[in-house]
Design brief:
Elements (H helix, E strand, L loop, with lengths): L5 H6 L10 H4 L12 H9 L8 H4 L7 H9 L3 H9 L5 H7 L6 H4 L2 H4 L5 H15 L14 E5 L3 H12 L3 E5 L8 H4 L8 H14 L2 E3 L10 H6 L5 E4 L5 E2 L12 E3 H10 L19 E5 L3 H12 L4 E5 L11 H9 L3 E3 L2 E8 L5 E8 L2 H7 L13 E4 L3 E4 L2 E2 L16 E3 L6
Parallel strand pairs: 1-2, 1-4, 2-3, 4-15, 6-13, 7-8, 7-13, 8-9
Antiparallel strand pairs: 5-14, 10-11, 11-12
Amino acid sequence: MAELTKKERMQIPRQPMPEQAPNSRNKNFTEVNLGFTEELAKLEAERCLQCPKPKCIEGCPVGVQIKDFIKLVADGDYLAAASKIKENNVLPAVCGRVCPQEEQCEAKCVTGLKGESVAIGRLERFVADYERTTTGIRQAEIKTKTGKKVAIIGSGPAGLSCAGELVQLGHTVTVFEALHDIGGVLIYGIPEFRLPKEIVKAEVDALEALGVEFKTNSVIGFTDTIDELMTVEGYDAVFIGVGAGLPYFMNLPGENYNGVYSANEFLTRVNLMKAYKFPEYDTPVFDVKGKNVAVFGGGNTAMDAVRTSKRLGAANARIIYRRSEVEMPARIEEVHHAKEEGIEFVMLTNPLEFLGDEAGWLHGVKLKRWSLANLMLLEEEDPLRYPVQSMLCQSTWQLLQLVTAQIQSLKRQHPISTSINGVISRLKKPQ
Ligand SMILES: Cc1cc2nc3c(=O)[nH]c(=O)nc-3n(C[C@H](O)[C@H](O)[C@H](O)COP(=O)(O)OP(=O)(O)OC[C@H]3O[C@@H](n4cnc5c(N)ncnc54)[C@H](O)[C@@H]3O)c2cc1C
Ligand code: SF4
């Protein structure tokens, strides 16, 4: 068949992701996106212009050779495409599902200038899924052993990526994880309907097959200190990838009423501890069936919490966000999916106080409406001190999740190096 011209490629529309229908998926926890078929993947790959200077790669934090892997998809050589991606990314099935491609590689893709960018993330997911479900994840090549030992603290995406890179370079790698399972936010935060646990497990198993050792229930600082790892246990280097997992409350009156959760606790109970299957799983969670749920925040965590509430049977599940939709940090796809599933969005609104009964149960919340322009000007001081409009609403919402995260503070001299030689941290300096 003759090569397509640039014009012909530009005329192919961006291929839609097959997905579960909104009205059935908002009642189950199985994956929303179903993945490209081979036909859709090849058609989408044909949209790539194979630019001489591919901008998309500049937008990829790990430098995946996007142009090359897409060419291999267009040629139908999906396994070679998988190998190409894995040269730079050890978690392609995870990243293909949850990376914010619209702000990274796809934001740089030239086809986006005149139309819609190439669906790079969807193609990455397709390729990774194809390999996993046909041959199984094939092992990458490992360089000659260096004799160096590296300890990695935390098994979130930072720790896993670091482990994958280092083991392929020939180092001996051990990942220490505080929890009983591997994956960090990938397993305790992001719900099954966006990132199935079996996908994370398959990529973790592949790292194990490469030689990465995993030690769960190991809280570094308690079970071992960093000093002990480096002196007694003989590690040459330590990578700290402990995430930013602690919830951060807003310090508003009434936050301690029963029914107020941090998103962190709510999602961990439901996702990791399978509270949605209580009493089959021994983890209770507030029963939201038929209740009104308000989630404060506008990021991915907020979207996951509100969509989880809907799936647990909430009568009304609402996002309450202090700015407007344009400023919401959540992925566009998540906001779109949430709306389709019946989530309500209340913008430019902040909570002032949680209201409860004598038995200590939440029964309402006082809210304040803001004007965006004034909020932006004043928020650096203290938004709660500057009411912009006098409107005050009171609702009867019964469950609230407070959606923010606290960066654990670590002493360091540089955003990635720390004050100890050989120890580096993935966290940036707390703002
Ligand atoms: C609900 C939710 C949804 C999100 N959705 C997206 C999304 O769609 N796209 C996106 O790009 N980002 C998303 N994010 C953000 C993303 O998950 C994080 O940026 C990412 O997980 C950070 O990776 P990490 O490896 O640094 O930390 P984490 O994933 O937090 O992993 C840190 C690990 O370290 C372990 N640990 C902590 N202390 C110790 C210790 N002392 N010893 C041993 N182990 C320890 C923790 O138990 C944890 O497993 C989301 C975050 C949340 C909370
Ligand atoms: S920028 Fe877009 S069109 Fe160009 S090579 Fe990358 S994916 Fe293809």
